[in-house]
Each structure stands twice: as structure tokens, then as C-alpha cells.
Amino acid sequence: MIQKGTAKVAGYDVEKEPEKVRESIGIVFQELTLDRDMTVREILEYHGRLYSMPKTARQERIEELIKLVELEGKRDTLTRHLSGGMKRRLEIARGLMTRPKVLFMDEPTLGLDPQTRIRIWEYVKDINRQGTTIFLTTHYMDEADQLSDRISIIDHGKIIVTGKSWELKNALGQDLIYLESSDNAAASGLLKGLSSVKGIREKSKGIVVMVNVDGTYLLPEIMDLLRNGGIRVKAVNLKKPSMDDVFVHYTGREFRDEGAEKGSVAIVRAGRR
Amino acid sequence: MHTGFLTIYWRDMLRFVRFRTLLFASLVQPALWLAFFGIAMSNNFDRVTATLPVFPGVRSVNYLTFIGAGVIAMTTLFTSLFGGTVLLFDKNWGLMRETLSSPLPRIHIIIGIGLSGMTKSFIQASVIMGFGILLGVQFFEGYSPMQLLVSLLGIMLFVGIFSLGFLFLSAAIAISMESPEGMQAVITLLTMPFFFTSNALYPVSSFPPLLRALSTINPLTHLVSGIRYFAIGSDFSAIGIRYTYTQSDILVSFFALLAFAGIMFLIARWRFSKVTVT
To answer: Which of B14, B97, B102 sits opposite A29 (nearest CB)?
Structure first.
């Protein structure tokens, strides 16, 4: 439901041409939405029929997709007897049944084991390579990083930043230096003056210094500066910014469960055609 | 013509045939009704009514024949009222989303569920008639093949329209309810008045006026009248009461059922238009 403004999907106005929009999109829902009492083939058949695909096109597509998601041996198995990963793969196949221009996936790897996740990622990349634009929402930052051409971070229902993975990470600086010292406030005061320091963020026990030069060379300089200022450094750590850091930076909080409801990452993968 | 309703029909029938126990139970249950209740009651009734004077020149049928039509009607009522339950399960399991987010017009869901439920009712009615005749139900006696064909078509027409009406009602309830338990309660509550204010098991002619008025607007009464007209004849006596059906009586019953099904369809369509995908 649009409250304000207009929206277009695959070139069709959501408000004025909802039927056209429905015909050009595929959806993979967050919860499993498979009829437990239908077979793999029937699930796909039902979906194709709902979208009025002609019979021969339907049958060809079913065979293609069963191959793509590697369920060849399970064609006539009831979905109640499939494993979690297989069900997800079947749902992805179903989302692709009608060759949608745009595929929406709502947390497709939620609750799956690491191997299955990686396999699903492979399918997602494959599908994308074949020219389907994919909108994928996820709470896994590594997933966003791996799969996306463009990432948008959504916080409290608003997109707060959009960009390619490296652009978002670079915005945080080239490296992140974590410091615990005898006086964190004084330390950040001292370091703020350095031209190579982009910003400083406070953590519960220490500070994170974002730097826009190679941290390995800057770190000795920082240590000297703090020692001369009479501050004793207790712990130090240097790392490259990850998508987790990007998320924390933009939403201003750690990625915890209570925050998870409000903050999520939407990935926009542009189909290359 | 858009044939999307066939997709819904196909899926529902697939599940019906797949669950052998469910299929078996739905066919055996009405037969048991006829076998136990029918035979037990008919022995009692036939003994009591044996002493009543007979109408000269009017064909007299036994009680089993009398309630044979009632059991067909009752089974159709129960099956149809529960026929929409699948929609409630679909809604609760998230399966409905797939259908609702597709380009399929929602009206096709109602029609598809209606047609598959109607098919189930046809199968059940045929089984009861066949089994009933084996048990001694005097249906179609002395009919020529042509008369038999017309009678069967007539019965199926009445059963079909009646079941559609209750399936639409069931679909409307299912799509508006949250829990299967709640739906079960509502349906059980609904079946009682329909069942007991009808002429399915006993004659309504000695009802008090209010009950008789209720029985006149009860779709079940019209279905039972229709089945008796086609299966037994336009003039017969049972339990010491003479039944005559004119063609216009049956036409009125037919239109009453048609009106009922039409109203239920509109209600179902209205309830479905309120459903949103979340």
C-alpha cells in the first residue's frame, strides 16, 4: 500500500497496473510457504498454472528449474519429506517459475546451515547472471557483502544509505583501529587532531579510530603520540572495515536481536543484460 | 475465458484423492448412517406405521426410502460446510499468500473451491444411492432408462446447487476466521438448525407454525423435496403421510436453492475482497 508518492516495478506503476506488476515479479517469502501434501513437481505446476503459463512452457520450465536447484531425485516427493535446505531451494525455483524480471527474496538463508547457505548463494548469483534483478533482504552482513551490487541499509523503515559494498566500507576509512587505554576521552581528544584520522567512535571499554591511510604505518605513530601524552595503552587491534562495521556506523548500534527488527539490509542487485 | 479456477480445483482434488483415509471416511460415513440409523429407525417406524390406514391408489414406501433422500442431503450439507476449511489452513500456513499475490482473480478461488466441493458431493451422493438401493431403499422403482437418466440429472442438479451455496458460505467463514477450532464451532452451530428444521428425517407437516416457517426457508428442505421428487415420485406415502409434489413445487424449490447459492456467492466475494496479503 503506497501512502505517498508513486512506485514503479519493472516499468509498471504499482498503483495503476497491479496485475502487470504481479506478472513480472517473483517472491520468495521469509517463512516456508509450501503445501506439505504436494510433490515438488506439483508445487511448481500449481505456480505455473496460477500465472496461466501454457502447458508445454510449464513442463519445460519445471525440468529446467528442478535441474537448477538440484532436486532431480525428488520430483515426486511430498514436500513434507524434504529437508529445510531443499524446501528453500524449491521455493527459490518456484519464485523463478514464471521467469520474473524482478525477484524479491525475504531472508532466503534464514536458519540454514553454512553449506546450504553457500549453495543458495550460488543459485542467487546464477539467476542474477541470467538477467534477473534481485531484491534481497537479510540480517547477515556477510551475505549482503557477498551477493550485492548495491546495498541499502534500512533503519526504522527508512533507507539511510545506499552504495556498493566497497563504497560503504571506504566511507568508514581504510582501516579501523581499536584502542583501550587508561584515559579513553583524553586519547580521542589527542587523536582527533591527526589529519589521517577520519573519525572516532566510542565503545563500552575503548574507542574505534577510523583512519584513511594504511593503518599498519599509522599505528606506531599513534602509540608514540599517546605515550607522550601520558596515556597508557592497554590493548590495540587493527582491522579492515566489514559490513558489520558499516551497519553499526550508520545505525549507531550493535547488531543485536532487539535491533534486528528495526534495522535490516536490503540488497539491490541489478541484472546485467 | 480465464480458467484459473481449474487450478484451484485441480489442487483441491489432488489433495482429496491423495488422502486415502479421508477419501474412504467421507464415503463410508454416509453409508454407515444409512446402514445403522436408517435400518434401526425404519424397523421402528415401519412397525408403528403398519397399523395406519393406507391411501388407496398411492404408492407407499418404507422409512428407509424416506430418509434415503435425507441422508444424501445431510451428507451434502456436512461435506459442503466443511469444504472451505482448506482455505483457513492455507491462510494460517501462509500458503494463501502465493495464490493471493498471483494475478489470479480472487473470485476464481471461490469458484474453484466450490466446484471441487461439488464434485465431492456428487461422488458421495452416488455412493449413498448405490449403497442405499442394496440395503432396500426403493429409489427409481419402475423407471424406464430415460426416466432414470432424467431423475439422476435432476438429483445432481439439486445436490450441485445446494452444495455450491454451502461451500460459498463455508469459504466466506473460513476466510474471515482465525482458528480452525473457531470455525469448527461456528459450523457445528450452523448445522443444527439446518438439520433439525428440515424434512430430512421426519415429516414437517406436524411441526408448530414457527418451525414450519423455518423449514420452508431452509435450503435443506428444498433439496430433500427435490431428491424425493426425482427418486421416489410426485405422489407417494411414507410414515402414514401422503406426499405430493407438483412440478411448480419443485421449480420453487429449485429457484430457492439458486437464490440461496447466489446470495452466498455474493457474501463470499465480499469477504474475499477484504482479505489482504501480509
So the answer is: B97
* A42 shares contact with chain B (CB less than 8 Å): yes
Residue in B2, B14, B19 nearest the CB of A38: B14
CB burial of B167-193 (b: ≥16 within 10 Å; e: otherwise) equals bbbbbbbbbbbeeeeebeebbeebbee
Is residue A244 exposed (0-12), middle (13-18) or buried (19+ Cβ within 10 Å)? Answer: middle
Residue B106 lies in a domain: yes
Domain borders along chain A are 19-138, 173-240
Per-residue model confidence as pLDDT tens for chain B (278 residues): 678 899 999 999 998 888 888 788 888 888 888 888 888 877 777 777 777 777 777 788 888 888 889 889 998 999 899 999 889 988 888 888 888 888 888 899 999 999 999 999 999 999 889 988 888 888 888 888 899 999 999 999 999 999 999 999 999 999 998 888 999 999 989 888 888 888 888 888 778 888 888 888 999 999 999 999 999 888 888 877 888 888 899 999 999 999 999 999 999 999 998 887 66
Residue B278 lies in a domain: no
ipTM of the complex: 0.83
| CATH numeric code, A19-138 | 3.40.50.300
Rounded distance, CA B153 to CA B136, Å?
Answer: 22
Domain around B35: 4-273
Q: Could you please report the per-residue DSSP string of A184-234?
A: HHHHHHHHHT-TTEEEEEE-SSSEEEEESS-HHHHHHHHHHHHHHTT--EE
Q: Which residues of B touch A49 (CB under 8 A)?
A: 4, 6-7, 10
- Cβ distance B95 to A34 less than 8 Å, yes or no, reads yes
From CA B114, how far away is CA B166, in angstroms rounded?
Answer: 9
Task: Render pLDDT for A215-264 as a digit per residue (tens, 0 to 9).
Answer: 888 889 889 888 988 889 999 999 888 888 888 888 875 544 444 444 45
CATH of A173-240, one of 3.30.1780.10, 3.90.1150.180, 3.30.70.920, 3.40.640.10: 3.30.70.920
- Please give the tally of structural domains in chain B: 1
Q: Which of B2, B3, B7, B104 to mutate to test the interface with A (most CBs of A within 10 A)?
A: B7
- Shortest distance between the Cα of B20 and any Cα of chain A, in A, equals 13
- In a 3-state reduction of DSSP, which class is residue B147? helix
Q: Please, which residues 118-157 of chain A have a Cβ atom closer than 8 Å to chain B?
A: none
Q: Give the residue from A12, A14, A34, A125 showing the smallest Cα distance to A81.
A: A34
| A156 vs A68: CA distance, rounded Å | 36
Partner-chain residue, chosen from B2, B7, B101, that has the shortest CB–CB distance to A22: B101
